[in-house]
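QA checklist item 7 of 12: single-chain prediction sanity check.
[x] sequence parsed
[x] length recorded as 92
[x] structure emitted
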Amino acid sequence: MDRIKKSLKCPVCYFTFDINTRIPRVLTCGHNLCGSCCSKIYTEGSITCPICKKDNCYDNVSLITQNYIVIEMIQEIKATDEPMFKLKNNPF
């Protein structure tokens, strides 16, 4: 379960993904970042992935695909009252 919980956190800010401001977004390189971090590192039509350093081109941050599988996992864990999700934006 710890590996699953780790994969439900943004690798940049370490906050747990959510369905509001930290929506999991999947870059064209395949790595996931939260929407908030995507907005912060978006410059001149692209995001350089902080993990693999690949440039990912987008006309707008909102066009980066949401990772619906991760969103579904978050909703399932929240429904089970998992303590990880009891604190808003818990970074750990």
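[x] summary fact logged: The helical segments are 2-7, 35-41, 68-79.
[ ] second reviewer sign-off
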